[in-house]
Amino acid sequence: MPGDIYAADGLRHSRTPALIGALTLALIAGPFIGLAFATQWGKFHFAPGDMGSIGVSLGYSLIALVLIIALGTPLAWWLARQSFRGKWVLEAIILLALLTPPLAMGILLTTLFGPYGPIGNLAARAGVEFTNSALAFVLAQFYGALPYYVLAARAAFEGVPRELEHIALTLGKSPWQTFLQVSMPLARLGLAAGIALAWVRALGEFGIVLILAYYPQGIPVKLWVNLQDIGLSSVYPLLWAFFLVAMPLPLILGLLSRRQGLF
Q: How far are the Cα atoms of 20, 29, 93, 219, 226 from residue 34, in angstroms, in the given order?
C-alpha cells in the first residue's frame, strides 16, 4: 500500500507510526532547541548564589535518593510479592502521595512538620528544625520522589518470574540470598529506571521545597528567584547547569543496567 515501508525483517510496516513518532519527538525537543537559541552565549555567566544552589541540590538530592532506595525498595518488593487483606489501602496511599499537587503536599508537610505541627513542635523542643533547613530540604525531596520510585520498583519486581525465585529457594538459598541473587539482578532494568526517575524528580522538586524549605535554596527555587529579581536571561545559565547535573546519572544507569553485574 502507498506509504508502507519494508523493514530489515522483510515485513511490511506502515509509515504512520514513524511519522507521528517523529512529530512527537519534535514537540518534545522544541523547548530545548529554543533554549539553545535564546541563551546569550557571549554573556553566559551565573548570577550570585547560583553555584551554591547547585551544590545544595546535588548534595541533598543524593541523600534523599539514598533514603528513597533504602526505604522504597523493601516496600516495593513487599507490595509486589505479598498478598494480604487491606493491601489496596497501601496502594491507595502511594497513589494519593503521587497525585497530590506538590504545593498541596508542601502545605500538608508543613502542617505535620512545621513549627506548629505535632512532629515539628516536638522536634523544635529538641533543637531540630523541619522547616527552612537541610533536613527540611531532604524531607521535601523524599516525599516528592518516593512514590515514583516505589511504583517503578514494584513493577520491576512483579516482572521477575516467581518460578526462578522458587527454584532458588528449593536449592537451599535463603529468602535474603534469593532476593539479592535472583530478584534484584532480574529487576535491575526497572530498578535503574526507578532510581533515575527518583533522582530527576528529587532534583527538580519545586512546589514542596518552596513551602517547606525555601532555604537553603536549591536550583529550582533559585531559578524562580532569578526570574523574579533579575529577569529571564539570568535563568538560562542555571538551567543549563541543571541539565548537566541531572542527566549523567540517568544516562549512566541506563547504560550500566544493560550489562551484567550492575547489582
A: 21, 9, 39, 21, 19
Those residues with Cβ within 8 angstroms of residue 193's Cβ, 6 or more apart along the chain or in another chain = 152, 156, 253, 254, 257
* Cα 213 to Cα 129: distance, rounded to the nearest angstrom: 10
The closest of 99, 24, 5, 50 to 245, measured between CA atoms, is 50
Q: Could you report the per-residue pLDDT of 98-119, keeping only the tens digit for each? A: 999 999 999 999 999 998 999 9
DSSP state for residue 172 in the 8-state scheme: T
Q: Which of 253, 225, 206 is nearest to 102 (CA)?
A: 206
Distance CA 77, CA 157 (A): 6
pLDDT tens-digit series, residues 172-220: 899 899 999 999 999 988 999 999 999 999 999 999 999 999 999 999 9
The amino acid occupying position 38 is A
- Predicted TM-score of the model (pTM): 0.87
Strand partners, 87: none
Q: Is residue 206 classed as helix, strand or coil in its secondary structure?
A: coil
Residue 223, C-alpha cell as written in the block: 531559578
Using DSSP's 3-state secondary structure scheme, residue 213 falls into coil
Q: How many residues does the chain have?
A: 263
Alpha helices (H) in the chain, listed in sequence order: 16-38, 50-81, 87-99, 102-113, 118-125, 134-158, 162-170, 175-178, 184-186, 188-203, 207-212, 219-229, 235-246, 248-256
DSSP string, 213-240: --SS--HHHHHHHHHHHT-GGGHHHHHH
